[in-house]
Amino acid sequence: MPPKVVQKLGHALSLRTWDTMVPDRWRWLSRHLPETRAGERLLDVGCGSGAFTIGAALRGYDALGLTWDDQQRERGEGRARTLGVPARFRALDARRLDEADDLRQSFAVVVLCEVIEHVLDDRRLVRAAAGCLVPGGRLLLTTPNVDYRPIVPEHAGPFTEVENGDHVRRGYTREQLVELAREAGLAVEELDAVSGLLSQKATWVTYTAGRLSPHLGRALTAPLHPVVPLFDRAASELFGWPPYSLCMVASKPRFPR
After folding, report:
1. Is residue 119 part of a domain?
2. Is the residue at 229 inside a domain?
3. Model pTM?
């Protein structure tokens, strides 16, 4: 089997090891990351163990993932080595992104996927992300929808007032995302949403069974991964079910005013 096929299959399997909302976000991201041979630089802020960073590298991007500590950095590097993917990782607190002078005005794409809801000063973070973009570069952002229906009781709050890794706010409205982008000097190109009724219910299975055993949760959800994307949006519209995450594409003007 060709190495590229093995890499893509391995990445696809890594996205299916937990809830269905993770691949939902990757499908949205990948629609805005056309395959490239130009090696455009991409920065994945708050990348965790690097699944999306690796996915971007597989699509031809010179991808750098920023994660919160050396343990997660090493995990991301290990996953990339296993798959033979040239993704790179660095331990850097997202709250201090604006202090990383070497990252400024260096990237064609910056990804902020499910990050700003963990940070008290979300305005500072979005401005820092915008500062990492070259003129014409794009910010790809996802975050919880303030109107989501809690999947498990703890998703209903209360939300922490200290930055300990949990959510510091429930989520955002579309208008609030536009406000954040514009305040950072970005132009909003698209607003969308992912993870509707079926995806949320499948994730409930993962969380609930996972309380007994993480392996059980993954095993029960695995058969749902190929089915959920086919009918999720239609089912959500039929029952008027709010999406879990909002998505935004915002660009940095090419010509300063």
Report:
1. yes
2. no
3. 0.94
